[in-house]
Amino acid sequence: MSSWKGIILAGGSGTRLAPLTTAISKQLLPVYDKPMIYYPLSTLLQIGIREVAIITTPDQQPLFKKLLSDGSQLGCHFEFFSQEKPAGLAEAFLITEEFIKGSPTCLILGDNIFYGNGLVDLAKEAMSSPAGATVFGYRVNDPERYGVVEFDKENRAVSIEEKPELPKSSYAIPGLYFYDEKVIQIAKSLTPSKRGELEITDVNKIYLAEGNLKVKVIERGVAWLDAGTFKSLLQAGSFIHAVQERQGLMVGSPEETAWTNKFINDEQLKKLAEPHNKNAYGRYLLNLVGKKDATH
What we know:
Layout: E1 5-10, E2 30-31, E3 34-35, H1 38-46, E4 51-56, H2 61-68, E5 77-82, H3 91-95, H4 97-100, E6 105-109, E7 112-115, H5 117-127, E8 133-139, E9 147-151, E10 157-162, E11 171-172, E12 176-179, H6 183-188, H7 200-209, E13 213-217, E14 223-226, H8 230-247, H9 254-260, H10 266-273, H11 280-295
Parallel strand pairs: 1-4, 1-6, 4-5, 8-13
Antiparallel strand pairs: 2-3, 6-12, 7-14, 8-11, 8-12, 9-10
């Protein structure tokens, strides 16, 4: 089986966050002590995906390249793609067709933050299934903001609706999707919605109609934050701050995740941390190696 590839969709116009996003991409804004894109990137690295396509707007791409480089410093490989204008999440598969061709793909949205070990187990389970697609259901108070999945009595998904006025359940589909290599052909077959966009919900509906869509419910213990509004951006920063202060552990550090997964060694981690040794982020990374040395 081909190894999995990842896509981070970090394009979009960020209109809901203007004027914050008038000059800079939403996914480069800080969520407490890190740029927003660090969190979805860390999620991909956490589940073992090392080849990642990063989709940005053309004008912001140099900033993303400056921040993330080509990924080799993390033992990974990053490629950058442009989305000229927001034309729907499913367009991500058309933009990155040459990159993902022949491989199963995980798409994660650049403003989605996940926290909790249970997610890794769910993701690994999704990645162990070579055919079809897997998405997740997450209970929310405001399902009308999202794609909503309806279940039957046996907990099987029976319908998916995009931003319904009258949601048939409280389960939203978060911005983390797993697809087999057929997703490119499915995305090509779509017609734009009333919003003029290629909807990810339509991709999921096709897999569902074919009997090839699994929907896993994310239970308590995993937090999902969508940092796309002023309020949710503030809440996300407060949440990350609270967790880190309480536990003394970093959330969403690509350097730590790459090191934990043995994509890079102690010396490589030290090299990445050194430029930041005057702040808490760099000292935390240096301490990881220090603590390891102290236990030997």
